[in-house]
């Protein structure tokens, strides 16, 4: 049980890796090619993204791990979960802005400051949601707080995908040059955060199963 949060985070990273090519194929409209595989798995930003998402999943699980281990939940123990949840909400906001970006600039690159402003907006959203989640953590029990946070992430990811999917369809129909890259990023962010939000629930399922097996004890071979 002590290491099952690592299992959950590892499964999350594995699922993201397995979904990479299918999502790219659906988004681009062609099956996985050798060039697509090489350009995706052969570049360090992709692996850095996977590591960042796996680390964020571990941070989100920091509070559930303390609760399941029956350790006291201090104010300092809340910060990894708060920071991870706020970062996920900020990523969703960035996904919305990236999805809308091609609709605003059309078949152009847009002004040089546009993408930088999206990055600044993500940092602002991270701070905003950090404050929101910090206040929630002060008024709710740890498990209620985690449940509330994950519920917001699921709803936020659904809303983000409701923006990203139509934007991607529109961009693909207009055949904007390279514009689909931004909407594809929006799709990836929405799907990643949606899966991310289920981490604590999966962890508690593992913990409940472990306790059930421990309570049952070893079964004797002579037991009918």
Q: Can you describe this structure in just a few lines?
A:
The protein is mostly helical and 224 residues long. It has helices at residues 4-28, 34-41, 44-60, 62-68, 75-105, 112-139, 142-174, 180-196, 199-216.
Structure class: mainly alpha
Question: Roughly how much helix do the residues carry, as a percent range?
Answer: over 70%
Report Rg: 20 Å
What is the mean pLDDT? 82
- The number of helical segments is 9
What are the segments in which pLDDT stays under 50 over at least 5 consecutive residues?
A: none
Q: Strand count, sense and closure of the main sheet? A: none
Intertermini distance: 28 Å
Shape: globular
Structural domain count:
1
Following the backbone from N to C, one meets helices and strands in this order, namely: HHHHHHHHH
- Share in β-strands: under 5%
Number of strands: 0
Feature tags:
about 80% helix; about 0% strand; globular
List the helices and strands and how they pair.
Layout (H helix, E strand, L loop, with lengths): L3 H25 L5 H8 L2 H17 L1 H7 L6 H31 L6 H28 L2 H33 L5 H17 L2 H18 L8
Helix pairs in contact: 1-3, 1-8, 1-9, 3-5, 5-6, 5-7, 5-8, 7-8
Descriptive account of the structure:
By secondary structure, this protein is mainly alpha-helical. The protein has one domain. Helices cover 82% and strands 0% of the residues. It is built from 9 helices and no strands. It has helices spanning 4-28, 34-41, 44-60, 62-68, 75-105, 112-139, 142-174, 180-196, 199-216. Helix 1 crosses helix 3. The two termini are 28 Å apart.
